[in-house]
Amino acid sequence: HLDGVPGAFLLENLGYTFGFVIVIMARQQLFTENTVTAVLPFMHKPTMSNLGLLLRLWGIVLLGNLIGTAFAALAFTEMPIFDEATRQAFTDISMKVMEHTPGEMFANAVTSGWIIATMVWMFPYAGAAKLFVIVMMTWLVALGDLAHIVVGSVEVLYLVFNGSVPWTEFLWPFAIPTLLGNLTGGTLIFALISHAQIRNDMGEAAQAKAKAERRKAEKKRQQQQEER
Questions:
Q1: Which has the closest alpha carbon to 106: 152, 60, 140, 69?
Q2: In whole angstroms, what is the distance from residue 96 CA to residue 77 CA?
Q3: Is 179:44 a contact under the CB 8 Å cutoff?
Q4: Is 79 helix (H, G, I), strand (E, B) or coil?
Q5: DSSP result, 106-172
Q6: What pLDDT does 56 receive?
Q7: Could you report the per-residue pLDDT of 180-227, keeping only the tens digit for each?
Q8: Average pLDDT of 55-81?
């Protein structure tokens, strides 16, 4: 509907933000939303137990997201909801994703992972502007045609279900490089920087808690001595 409209690219990419608004504002689970907040406790206390909890969370959320995107792509393919022009637009958009090499998929995914992690980090300070923050940051992902493991899965699986590409191309060149890129941008880069920022605060908080517990124990001991 926007062919020939000046600035159409800027306007049409606002549609990309709707899914993120629904998922995040409805307090549902998004894999890339969990990469920064979930990894900070592990970085503070890197034990095998915490690593297991982190991998369990990531695995369950990612699997759930991919199952959901697969059902959505299948519905778009099989259900008589859209006209032929719209279906062709779906195919054109999805084929544009597959034009990237694995290296480009990874690099784009690093950037999108960093942007989503930044968005999550902004939430505690966003207040009533949380909706604006979601739209603004995810719009950047759309404008840059960046790779995202969840959103991109809908696009690539649509091609798989309509027979345009084989299943193997979902895994490579798309899923594996994109997943690794999202994890790199959202975890290895952003979470490491964030942990460095809050490490001292976390240490001071732990020390204050330990001191309060020692005072409480000392007071209890004194009370017991007085009772004797």
A1: 152
A2: 18
A3: no
A4: coil
A5: HHHHHHHHHHHHHHHHHHHHHGGGHHHHHHHHHHHHHHTT---TTHHHHHHHHHHHTTSS-THHIII
A6: 94
A7: 999 999 888 777 776 666 666 655 655 667 677 778 877 777 777 777
A8: 95
Distance of alpha carbon 25 from alpha carbon 38, whole angstroms? 18
Q: Which of 19, 164, 18, 154 is nearest to 74 (CA)?
A: 154
Residue whose structure tokens are 């590409």? 165
Alpha carbon distance 144, 217 (integer Å): 57
User: What 3-state class would DSSP assign to 13?
Assistant: helix
pLDDT of residue 124: 86
- State if pTM tops 0.85: no
- Angle between helical axes of 102-126 and 130-143 (0-180°, round to 10): 170
Question: Which of 79, 107, 82 lies closest to 93 in space, CA to CA?
Answer: 82
